[in-house]
Structures are given as structure tokens and as C-alpha cells.
Design brief:
The structure is a single chain. This protein is of the alpha+beta class. It has three domains: about 5-105, Rossmann fold; about 130-200, Dna Ligase, domain 1, CATH 3.30.1490; about 205-480, D-amino Acid Aminotransferase, Chain A, domain 1 (2-Layer Sandwich). It is about 40% helix and about 25% strand. The strands form six sheets. The chain has an eight-stranded antiparallel β-sheet with strand order 13-12-9-10-11-14-21-19, with helices on both faces. A hairpin with a 2-residue loop joins strand 6 and strand 7. The longest helix has 19 residues, at about 175-190. The chain is globular and about 60 Å long.
């Protein structure tokens, strides 16, 4: 049985794992970089070890250093959290080789899930629907055109080696396909030195809906409901909720059966997430399995009553899942807002530096997972996520109103945050009606609405989060005025 867990991560997820381990009487080992010497996870763990410089490659991504720390600390298990090494099969194999209990799936399953082409082929064999398109690579533009005519335009030409938007082309006709095939191939070659093209149907006004899944080493498999993750920016989730407003019980059960099939098809163990795209006419298409605990797992905990980290540890200990699918019931509604340190008006550019003061919201149905405290620092080396603010309610509107109140109570001084954006989103009629899509921000002009909200708030100054964003009206005016040039500048740096 696991007695001591090293957490190969930092920030709020490290604190989250420590909390469950403490409740189970399991000792914890924290690792930290130069940047995190004073972080809360360092102070709350049973033991803490320095592993290197602030840059992730020299600390949290340093496999050999983390392995050395696991062995020297006497930890018998490692929890990877999410990000960093959580989906790195090489690190998982390193743990397996050294007989360290990796709290997650196996290296082989992780590798398969991470290979989009292999995983798609496995899903097709298991009769799990995937986005229509080529079953593998296309050899030339003529083959790409043939497939495009079969699945109907518009289609995407996607380079397997693409990234950051490179090697992807949206095409609407045979003529444009011929033109764009060459440019997509050339762009991928220039960026990555190689090219391999897939053809996929372009789906419009889509929702991103994922299912929490769990499978033990005895073959017992369940899904723990869905999460709607459609509100995004640059393909990164901002707000999640459960249940989804478009998933009824029949759909939940039907897609849930596909999730169980998917988990078995890749021989998945422990907790993971099967992700789907849902079209406006109700079709679901599998896109990938995230082989780790998800950022948004707290909202599933709120509606299921489960501790998902405990479930991970139990499965890693070789125990059977202690419930059947029929035993699981959804209770109420939950929403999560990712509180990011970024400037909405500068194309969501990271905002870093010391946090001189912070007030964490609380109250009935409010949960906040965060590493923040007055005097901490938001580092430029790591992800911009500072906190996960979650609310629960017996009805969707109760959860939404609790979230609006909690966002209003959340005060962070020293960095720009995404809080004002979320307040604007949650007040829109589109959000209230559940009219969601991955292009929600653009489709409904949310940034323009945010600007109007901030201008209006200058008059009342009642909302703490919005007031903090406009302490100096001249500052705000200059931000809005320079949005275009700054967005261009930041986008080039981020790319």
C-alpha cells in the first residue's frame, strides 16, 4: 500500500493532492524550483526538496532529478498532477523500471493515447465515432481532394507535425484545396523539417464536451459524467460546467457507453478523460483521451460526491472501484472559472509579478483551489492559472449566481486577471440559455461587452474585481486604445 507520495508538480494541483494524502494518512514529498522556495505546497508537504532552477526544463521536467528525489526521499509512489511530466510515457516507464508506483495509467497506454493517429485507428476499430476524414495520411493533393468530396466541404488540411496553428488550412473547394495542400505542406516542412497531411471535416459551431472515466486493474470501468468545456480562448478552456445543458440522461448513458469502450480499447487504467466534439445537430465525435487528472476535476467532485484523487490512489493500490455505474448519481450543478493571470485586452498575454494582497472567496457552495496568498509571486516560468474557482447549486442558476458573487468577492492586487471577463460572460443571455460553442467569445462579441461593462462600472465602482481593473481610468483608456498593436506584438512573442 502507498505510504509516501512524491508530487511531481507545483501550485494548486500539488496542494490538491497533498490535501487528500493528509486525509488518508499518507506522507507527502514536495519538489520545488528556485521560483517556488516560498510556495504553499512546499510548506504543507511532509517533506520538501529543491530540484533546480526556475525554468521547467531544469526542474519540474528534469526526469532524472525527480527520480533521484523519489529514491532518496523513500517515496513509494509519484503523483504527476497535470502538465509537466503527467503525460510523458518515458517518465512513466522510468518509474515502472524503478518499481515506483505511478499514480496514473501505464506507459504503453499513455503512449497510445498521445499518438493521435494510432488512437484514432483504435477508436475506429472499437466503433467509437471520430471526426470524419482520412483514416491515415494522404499521399498527395489528389487523394486529399477525393476524401474532401466524400465528407463534403469545408475541410481542414492538418499537418501531423503542426503546432501553434502552423500546417493547418481551412478549405472550401477543390480549387482552394489544391492551392492550400502545397502551402500547408511547405509551412510544415519549414517549421518542422517534415510533413504528413491529414484531411478532416471542419465542424462549425461545435461544443467541447468531455467525460471523466475511471478503470481499475481488474477491468472495472465507469464514466463519472460529462463536463461542458466549450468556453475557450486560443483552444484553452476558460469556464467549465456540469452537467452540460445539451446532455440529457439518454445521451449521457449513450456517450458514456462509448467512453467505457474507448477506455477498454486502449487498455486504460486509473483516471482519465475522453474528449468529444459535439456538432450543432447533436452528433458526438471522439477527439482524444487525456491520460491524467484534469484541471476541471473539482466540478465532477462537487456533483458526484467523490474524491477523485483518492480514487486515483485506491486504483494505484490495486483496489477495485468501490461502486458500479448504476450507483453513480448527479447531484446539482457546478461551474468552474479558471482564474488566470493574464491581460484580456492584450490578447490574453500573461501578467506576472508579486501579489501584494489577495482575498479568496468563500461561502455556501463555493470552493477555491489556489496557491495564492498575500505576498506570493506569479512566476513568468509557469502556466498563468492561479486558482480554480468553483461553485455548486441545486439548480444551474443557483450555481451561476453563486459564481457571480464569488467572482465579485475575489480580489487579487498586483497582476491582471480574467475575473472581469468571466463576470461579463456569466451575465450574458447566451450563457444563461446554454447557447455555448468553442467560438463563444468571438461569436457573441464578448470583449466588446466586457469593455462596456468596465466603462459602466467606473460610474458605480461597486464590483471589487472590475474596480480593481479600472483603478486608473486613464490606464484603461490607453489599454483599449493600444489593443490592436499590443495584441499583434504579444501574439508574435507567444507563437
Amino acid at each position: 500500500m502507498i505510504e509516501k507520495v512524491l508530487i511531481a508538480n507545483r501550485g494548486e494541483i500539488a496542494l490538491r493532492v497533498i490535501k487528500t494524502c493528509k486525509a488518508l494518512g499518507i506522507k507527502t514529498v514536495a519538489v520545488y524550483s528556485d521560483e517556488d522556495v516560498n510556495s504553499l505546497h512546499v510548506k504543507q508537504a511532509t517533506e520538501s526538496y529543491h530540484i533546480g532552477e526556475g525554468a521547467p526544463a531544469k526542474s519540474y521536467l528534469n526526469q532524472e532529478k525527480i527520480l533521484e528525489t523519489i529514491l532518496s526521499s523513500g517515496a513509494d509512489a509519484v503523483h504527476p498532477g497535470y502538465g509537466f511530466l503527467s503525460e510523458n510515457p518515458d517518465f512513466t516507464r522510468l518509474c515502472e523500471k524503478n518499481k515506483i508506483n505511478f499514480i496514473g495509467t501505464t506507459a504503453d497506454s499513455m503512449e497510445l493515447c498521445g499518438d493521435k493517429m494510432r488512437c484514432k485507428a483504435v477508436m475506429l476499430k472499437a466503433k467509437v465515432p471520430t471526426v470524419p476524414g482520412s483514416p491515415g495520411l494522404v499521399k498527395d493533393a489528389d487523394e486529399a481532394q477525393k476524401i474532401a468530396n466524400e465528407i463534403k466541404y469545408p475541410v481542414l488540411l492538418k499537418s501531423v507535425y503542426g503546432g501553434g496553428g502552423r500546417g493547418i488550412r481551412l478549405v472550401t473547394s477543390d480549387k482552394k484545396l489544391k492551392e492550400n495542400y502545397e502551402s500547408a505542406t511547405g509551412e510544415s516542412m519549414a517549421a518542422f523539417g517534415k510533413s504528413a497531411i491529414l484531411v478532416e471535416k471542419f465542424l462549425e459551431k461545435i461544443r467541447h464536451i468531455e467525460y471523466q472515466m475511471a478503470r481499475d486493474t481488474h477491468g472495472n470501468t465507469v464514466h463519472i459524467f460529462e463536463r461542458e468545456c466549450s468556453i475557450q480562448r486560443r483552444n484553452q478552456k476558460l469556464i467549465e460546467q456540469t452537467p452540460s445543458p445539451v446532455v440529457d440522461q439518454e445521451t449521457r448513458d449513450r456517450i458514456g457507453e462509448l467512453v467505457v469502450k474507448a477506455a477498454k480499447a486502449v487498455d486504460y487504467t486509473n483516471l482519465g478523460t475522453a474528449e468529444f466534439l459535439r456538432t450543432d445537430d447533436g452528433d458526438f465525435y471522439f477527439i482524444e483521451i487525456n491520460a491524467r487528472l484534469q484541471v476541471e476535476h473539482p466540478i465532477t467532485e462537487l456533483v458526484s460526491g467523490l474524491d477523485l484523487v483518492k480514487l486515483q490512489i485506491d486504483i494505484a493500490n490495486g483496489e477495485e472501484i468501490p461502486f458500479k455505474q448504476k450507483d453513480l448519481k448527479m447531484n446539482g450543478y457546478a461551474i468552474e472559472c479558471r482564474i488566470n493571470a493574464e491581460d484580456t485586452f492584450l490578447d490574453f498575454a500573461p501578467s506576472t509579478g508579486p501579489v501584494s494582497d489577495v482575498t479568496i472567496p468563500s461561502g455556501p457552495g463555493v470552493r477555491c483551489d489556489s496557491y495564492l496568498y498575500s505576498g506570493c509571486t506569479v512566476s513568468s516560468f509557469y502556466d498563468s492559472l492561479m486558482a480554480k474557482l468553483c461553485t455548486w447549486g441545486q439548480t444551474f442558476d443557483e450555481a451561476r449566481l453563486r459564481m457571480l458573487n464569488a467572482l465579485g468577492d475575489f480580489y487579487i492586487q498586483g497582476v491582471e486577471t480574467s475575473i472581469p471577463l468571466y463576470k461579463t460572460i456569466l451575465k450574458t443571455e447566451e450563457y444563461k440559455k446554454g447557447d455555448l460553442s468553442t467560438d463563444f467569445l468571438k461569436r457573441y462579441g464578448i470583449l466588446d461587452r466586457l469593455t462596456a461593462d468596465i466603462k459602466a462600472d467606473k460610474e458605480t465602482n461597486k464590483d471589487a474585481a472590475l474596480a480593481a481593473a479600472v483603478i486608473h481610468s486613464e490606464y484603461f483608456k490607453s489599454r483599449v486604445k493600444s489593443t490592436t498593436e499590443n495584441s499583434t506584438r504579444w501574439k508574435s512573442q507567444l507563437d
